[in-house]
């Protein structure tokens, strides 16, 4: 079949798919079909005719000139730089009609996203906070140790005999722990005594003797049961079990005011506080300050502010479980990558994305437990009350990423950082899309691997990172398009587990502009007129979005994606264009 015949057949399929009103536009009174070929720099190229809701990622030399069928069609055009060797930074580009590329830079329209400052800094999304500072220290410790430095772990999760290898103790028995007590770059420790409050199959829950009245015995029993019976088994099923260097088959969960005191009360209002953490020092060192086991440390209720800023039991209950899920993924990941397989710790962008997937896993547990409308203060709300602490932060972070996607990268972090909250939100959304496409089992394979970063993603999924980035840019725009059936986009360009439009609209209604959510949907493509060109800049490993509207008398729209000086991008840049047909 010739390219012209393909174009006519695609046009026919589109017409058949439209409503009776729209069918009139495909009759003889409407715009004429676009030509099958178009001229670009003296060469003849095929005109790309996409069905409504469909998309394509154009790569390599083809980005020098793309011909899109016009005649009233509307597109989102998304330039990307996907090269793995590109340094972190902002890269300027030109996008638009090839005839404009020879014009001076001043003749090309420069437009930038219009974002209200309240959307960038609302909703409690402070970047420089105590939890993030400590989080960075923990991940840096994992990354800095040389490969091969890890002691071999005893893979014994769930094996009853192995649990006797390390004495567990009787209820209320007190064990000494060495607990990190500072956010400073140079670690220091406090020795505490903690009583065993709950001994389960997966969790040993200890409470610092200084905070013996922070919880009642029934509250500790309920907490232990939640983590032991629901959260930890779900994490092991999703991500693997990690290491077990102390051979007891359990995670040690230590509640201590030493964690509260890591931030003085006078600083809490400015920097926030520490909720909890995992420290790989406990797995990689035999020093006296290492507890030589899989340990999670957490803050305790402190309603009177005895140790630092005040925290009610409700504060701890709402914040601790998602933090535990997040940190347990880091613990499992480090154990699987570095200890069990003698590999390297996972790269921050992928490691953080997986930990935010772990938080979402908590939400999914409660979504399954409380199907709508049960478990909800308002029967119309999307998530049950118990799921909200696990999922809402991810929605806020990913909203910020999509709002200003050119500011961030999905596949790297700014030098010296371990990814901003927006970058983590974007990585979570990317991994959610990948898992929706290939099944949640892909997440476990990413963790149970000696590889890291792009190499890990590509080996596990069998696709290039560039291909995923292209499909992801298409999917976040195509999924749940306003006023269109959700199945208008093909399955490979949709999220099967989440409806983005519905989720972000609910977020907008709950938070509004004052809470950092100023639009029902964060993506608002910039205008790109046929026959015009624009300039922009973006990070590598992300995308920019432009809306290209053709008119009935525009049979073809030509688009070129090049560097700021008008010269083609190098092959190493991984320049590509993701194009989605909207109308």
Itemize the secondary structure elements and their pairings:
Layout: H1 3-17, H2 20-23, E1 37-40, E2 43-48, E3 55-59, E4 66-69, E5 74-81, E6 91-96, E7 109-110, H3 117-121, H4 130-144, E8 174-180, E9 189-199, E10 203-208, H5 217-239, E11 251-255, H6 257-260, H7 265-271, E12 276-278, H8 281-284, E13 295-298, H9 313-340, H10 348-369, H11 388-403, H12 421-438, H13 441-447, H14 453-461, H15 465-478, H16 500-511, E14 526-528, E15 533-538, E16 546-549, E17 556-563, E18 575-581
Helix pairs in contact: 5-9, 5-10, 9-10, 10-11, 10-12, 11-12
Textual characterization of the structure:
By secondary structure, the protein is an alpha/beta fold. It folds into three domains: 3-109 and 527-581, no CATH class; 114-346, no CATH class; 371-523, no CATH class. It has 16 helices and 18 strands. The chain has a seven-stranded mixed beta sheet. Strands 8-9-10-11-13-12 form a six-stranded mixed beta sheet. Strand 9 and strand 10 form a beta hairpin. The model is unreliable at 1-28 and 158-165 (pLDDT under 50).
């Amino acid at each position: 079949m010739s390219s012209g015949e393909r174009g006519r057949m695609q046009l026919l399929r589109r017409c058949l798919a439209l409503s009776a009103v729209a069918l009139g536009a495909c009759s003889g009174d409407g715009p004429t079909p676009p030509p099958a070929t178009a001229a670009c720099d003296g060469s003849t190229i095929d005109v790309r005719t996409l069905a409504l809701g469909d998309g394509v990622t154009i790569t390599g030399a083809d980005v020098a000139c793309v011909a899109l069928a016009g005649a009233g069609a509307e597109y989102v055009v998304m330039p990307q730089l996907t090269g793995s060797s590109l340094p972190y930074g902002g890269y300027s580009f030109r996008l638009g009609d090839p005839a404009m590329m020879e014009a001076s830079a001043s003749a090309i329209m420069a437009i930038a996203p219009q974002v209200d400052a309240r959307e960038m800094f609302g909703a409690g999304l402070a970047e420089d906070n105590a939890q993030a500072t400590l989080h960075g220290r923990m991940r840096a410790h994992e990354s800095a140790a040389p490969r091969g430095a890890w002691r071999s772990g005893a893979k014994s999760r769930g094996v009853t005999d192995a649990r006797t290898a390390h004495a567990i103790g009787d209820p209320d028995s007190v064990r000494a722990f060495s607990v990190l007590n500072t956010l400073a770059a140079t670690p220091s420790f406090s020795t505490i005594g903690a009583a065993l409050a709950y001994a389960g199959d997966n969790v040993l829950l200890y409470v610092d003797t200084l905070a013996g009245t922070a919880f009642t015995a029934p509250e500790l029993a309920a907490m232990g049961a939640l983590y032991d019976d629901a959260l930890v088994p779900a994490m092991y099923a999703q991500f693997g079990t990690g290491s077990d260097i102390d051979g007891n088959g359990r995670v040690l969960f230590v509640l201590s005011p030493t964690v509260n005191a890591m931030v003085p009360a006078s600083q809490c209002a400015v920097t926030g506080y520490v909720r909890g953490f995992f420290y790989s020092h406990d797995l990689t060192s035999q020093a006296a300050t290492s507890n030589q086991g899989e340990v999670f440390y957490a803050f305790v209720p402190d309603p009177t502010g005895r140790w630092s800023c005040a925290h009610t039991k409700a504060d701890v209950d709402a914040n601790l479980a998602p933090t535990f899920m997040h940190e347990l993924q880091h613990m499992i990941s480090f154990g699987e990558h570095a200890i069990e397989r003698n590999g390297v710790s996972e790269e921050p962008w992928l490691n953080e994305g997986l930990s935010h997937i772990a938080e979402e896993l908590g939400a999914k547990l409660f979504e399954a437990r409380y199907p709508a409308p049960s478990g909800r203060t308002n029967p119309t709300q999307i998530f049950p009350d118990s799921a909200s602490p696990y999922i809402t932060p991810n929605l806020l972070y990913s909203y910020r990423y999509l709002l200003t996607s050119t500011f961030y990268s999905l596949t790297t972090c700014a030098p010296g950082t371990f990814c901003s909250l927006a970058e983590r939100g974007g990585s979570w959304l990317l991994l959610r899309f990948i898992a929706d496409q290939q099944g949640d089992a892909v997440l476990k394979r990413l963790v149970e691997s000696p590889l890291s970063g792009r190499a890990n993603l590509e080996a596990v999924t069998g696709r290039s990172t560039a291909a995923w980035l292209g499909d992801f840019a298409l999917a976040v725009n195509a999924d749940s398009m306003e006023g269109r059936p959700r199945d208008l986009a093909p399955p490979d360009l949709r999220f099967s587990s989440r409806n983005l439009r519905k989720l972000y609209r609910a977020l907008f209604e709950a938070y509004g502009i004052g809470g950092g959510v100023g639009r029902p949907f964060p993506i608002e493509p910039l205008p790109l007129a046929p026959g015009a060109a624009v300039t922009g800049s973006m990070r590598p490993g992300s995308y920019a979005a432009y809306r290209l509207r053709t008119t009935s008398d525009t049979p073809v729209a030509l688009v070129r994606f090049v560097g700021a000086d008008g010269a083609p991008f190098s092959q190493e840049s991984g320049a590509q264009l993701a194009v989605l047909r909207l109308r």
